[in-house]
Amino acid sequence: MAASAVFPFMAGGAADGTKLPTGALALSDLTASPRFGLKGGGSAAWLTAHGISLPAVNHIGAYHGMRILRLGNEDILLLAEGAGEALAELKAGWANDAGPKGYSSWREEGWAWLRLSGPHAPQSMSRLCALDLRADRFGVDDIAQTRVGHIEAVTFRSQTGFDVLFDVTASVYFARTAAAAARHCTDFLIDTEGHA
Amino acid sequence: MKLLICPMNGPRNIDEFQSFGPVPAEPDPDRTADADWSRHLFRAENRRGIVVEWWRHVPSNYFFLAERDLVTNEVVRTFDPSERRDQS
Q1: Rg of the Cα trace of chain A?
Q2: pLDDT, chain A, mean
Q3: What is the distance between the alpha carbons of residues B9 and A185, in angstroms, rounded to a whole number?
Q4: Which of A44, A93, B53, B68 has the fewest beta carbons closer than 10 A?
Q5: B59–A58 C-beta distance less than 8 A
Q6: Is A72–B59 a contact, with Cβ atoms under 8 angstroms apart?
Q7: Chain A nearest C-alpha distance from B87 (Å)
Q8: H-state helical runs in A36-104
């Protein structure tokens, strides 16, 4: 996989010229992927009324190919990687509704979305995040709202490693910090997944 | 490392939290003597015992309450604000 550039793209900006690491720890930038956040009173009721079964707080559900992240009672994030049409339909319905329906938390603009993958991804995460994210403690439908690489972040498991969502203005910092953590990883067998 | 138990997110490093100070008393200004009202406005309490404080878990922007012993700095318990509303 070729190294890709980092959001936000702006000539002369902080991210200009930065490449994401590849190799034993690879970062890929999903910031351009469709997503939609709702927050505030009425958010949960509106989504439920439109057929979405909401998971418990800090858990992940699914609806029409989208992942439904419950970040709080009234703070919900819809990730539509590969399900852009279903999300566009839902967003159009939300925009045309007079309410009460919560308000958009602008996660598609405010947050970067990076994916850690590769054989060193679990080891790198254990260096970046203080929480125990081993597979027997942190399942596929769990969400951790915590600090990753010293910045506030939302993280959860993906098929290839971990996805991390955080303030988009810190994307270059995060890419460099993850790459630095990966340099300290070893190929010796380290039990980061809780296997006996 | 100091740990605090967030009612929503579980045990976390203390540096993930922000303190917002004690839950203020809410005396009725019409039924409170001037001296007591003045004391309420301008003087900070400095007593021993358990205080109920507002705290925020920063990464999830979740506000909750904690009962803390002012002498030992031990956090007795943390709980969702809805529990307090239910009591009153």
Answers
A1: 17
A2: 91
A3: 28
A4: A93
A5: no
A6: no
A7: 21
A8: 43-49, 84-96
**CA-CA distance, A135 to A156, in Å (whole number)?**
11
Instruction: List, in order, residues 6 or more apart from A28 with CB less than 8 Å away.
Output: A1, A4, A20, A114, A115, A117
Question: Rounded to two decimals, what is the model's pTM?
Answer: 0.89
- B88 or A31, higher pLDDT: A31
A146–B58: do the CB atoms touch at under 8 Å? Answer: no
> What was the pLDDT predicted at A191?
59
* Chain B, window 46-85: residues with a beta carbon less than 8 angstroms from a chain A beta carbon: 57-62
Q: Which two tokens stand for residue A61?
A: 């559900």
ω before B81 within 30° of 0 (cis)? no
pLDDT value at residue A28: 93
User: For residue A138, is pLDDT > 90?
Assistant: yes
B87: pLDDT strictly greater than 90: no
Domain limits of chain A?
35-107
Q: Which of A145, A35, A176 is nearest to B59 (CA)?
A: A145
- Chain B contact set for A75 (CB, 8 A): 61
- Test A154 with B59 for CB contact under 8 angstroms: yes
The residues spanned by each domain of chain B are: 3-25+34-87
Q: Note the pLDDT of residue A1.
A: 43
Could you tell me which CATH class the domain B3-25+34-87 is placed in? alpha beta
